[in-house]
């Protein structure tokens, strides 16, 4: 079996939602916004935000849910890319999601001047790799 692995960082768009599945296991879902910043060949700064639908499963997600609140920085250290489908009256809608296997929490609410954020580090990496 093959899988598409992903690693990324971002901020939670809303508090995580926890639910119990029919067989008794626990699932956690939360949206993560990850922002890409770059400079075009003309010197114009651009920003693009991508929303990722994340989910986690297992017994430990209950304790994690209280820490996953809106605005918290998360580092997805191991995740598997999935394609989900939703059927509705308008037709079938497909969207990408990530089943998170390993997650690290960043600090929430600390002043930006007191610490470099993951976004700042990612911005620097992106800017260093963009050739003018």
Can you give me a brief rundown of this structure?
The chain has about 130 residues and is mostly beta strands. The protein is built from two helices and six strands.
Helix content percent band:
10-25%
Counting DSSP E segments of at least 2 residues, the number of strands comes to: 6
Major pleated sheet: 5 strands, mixed, barrel
CATH second-level architecture:
Beta Barrel
CATH homologous superfamily assignment: Nucleic acid-binding proteins
Strand order of the largest sheet: 1-3-4-6-5
How large is the share of residues in beta strands? over 45%
Number of helices: 2
Question: Structural class, from secondary structure content?
Answer: mainly beta
Give the CA-CA distance, first to last residue.
40 Å
Keywords: DNA-binding
Region (Disordered): 107-132
GO molecular function: DNA binding
Biased composition (Low complexity): 107-116
